[in-house]
């Protein structure tokens, strides 16, 4: 199991820039959802699978491995939890969540 690392060519970019490796990792199915759910609270595998509504066990296992390898997750007393790097990443994403809430409030409802 391997995640894209800074310096690696990734889907859509051969530059090896750290931001491109991060975007590749976060763009994988369920990666952001797993991080967001663990931002709410630590979780066991089964609890996390239930909270992610519809993720297959094999995909969840793969994502957990990649996110652990990227040092964004760790195993804690209550199951999987964000590492210090993972908490920092989610904190950086919170302004985007606020922007999305504002955007949704401004959208004109569909007929």
Automatic annotation (TrEMBL):
InterPro entries linked to this entry: HTH_HxlR, WH-like_DNA-bd_sf, WH_DNA-bd_sf
SUPFAM superfamilies, A to Z: Winged helix' DNA-binding domain
Record-linked PANTHER family: HTH-TYPE TRANSCRIPTIONAL REGULATOR YODB, TRANSCRIPTIONAL REGULATOR, MARR FAMILY
Residues covered by the HTH hxlR-type domain: 17-108
GO molecular function, one term: DNA binding
Record's keyword terms, sorted: DNA-binding, Transcription, Transcription regulation
Species this protein is from: Aquipseudomonas guryensis
This protein's name: Helix-turn-helix transcriptional regulator
Any matching Pfam family: HxlR
């Amino acid at each position: 199991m391997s995640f894209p690392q800074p310096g690696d060519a990734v889907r859509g970019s051969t530059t090896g820039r750290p931001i491109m490796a991060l975007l590749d990792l976060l763009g994988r199915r369920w990666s952001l959802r797993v991080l967001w759910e663990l931002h709410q609270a630590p979780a066991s595998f089964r609890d996390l699978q239930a909270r992610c509504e519809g993720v297959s066990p094999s995909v969840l296992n793969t994502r957990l491995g990649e996110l652990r390898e990227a040092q964004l997750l760790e195993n804690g007393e209550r199951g999987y939890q964000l590492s210090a790097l993972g908490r920092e990443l989610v904190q950086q994403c919170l302004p985007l969540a606020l922007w999305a809430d504002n955007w949704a409030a401004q959208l004109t409802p569909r007929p």
